[in-house]
Amino acid sequence: MRYLVTTSVLIGSLIISGCQTTRQNAMTGEEETNSTTSGALLGCAGGALLGAMIKNKKTAAVGCAAGAVAGGAIGHQLDEQEASLRRELVNSGVQVHRENDRIRLVMRDQIAFQTGKSDLSPSIYSPLNSVAKVLAEYEETELVIGGHTDSTGSDAINDRLSNERAMSVLVYLRGVGVESARMHAQGYGKRQPMCSNDTKDGRACNRRVELELIPSTRS
């Protein structure tokens, strides 16, 4: 019991040190648990489980504390990175979505490319420069670049176009200092629609590039 009480105190201290434990959801306005808190709680659960499997209650408590520290640190860094991106990308037309341990940036076709082309539009340079700036500040982040199209045209054309658009973004970011090893580009064609392809607005919604920032998996 002594170890569990101590662990609870550690988690509480960690959450307090991470500043606020909740934040306002940008879409709904409701309060939600921020990633510092979520990371600490998930880290504790994972560490405790591993500790219990290895040895006993004492080890489980120690594992909980260690996991909470690691999970809370990652969550806190993601919270800071999300805040930086929102500041940098305000009024840019880029949508910023937070999904657990990843941050997703949605760049619609009209600000990124001309219709049917893979050359970057000048309007996307500033947002991409902002992304590169934040990536330079948070080196433990990797970037997955996904190209997407609407359902118009053949699979072969859409797959090629979405791949070329994703690679255009990667090449630009590499040119402004982002390491190639931190990035992966993939075209998904029309296979991952956000909206219905039955309307003009829905098809415009689906023509996009998404940049997904995730914790680094590199050792």
TrEMBL record:
UniProt key word NAD:
no
Q: Where in the cell is it found?
A: Cell outer membrane
Which segments constitute the OmpA-like domain? Answer: 100-217
Span of the signal peptide: none
Query: A single Pfam family, by name?
Result: Gly-zipper_Omp
Keywords from the UniProt entry: Cell outer membrane, Membrane
Q: Where is the major localization of this protein?
A: membrane
The record's annotation in InterPro entries points to: Bact_OuterMem_StrucFunc, Gly-zipper, OMP_bac, OmpA-like, OmpA-like_sf
Q: What is this protein called?
A: OmpA family protein
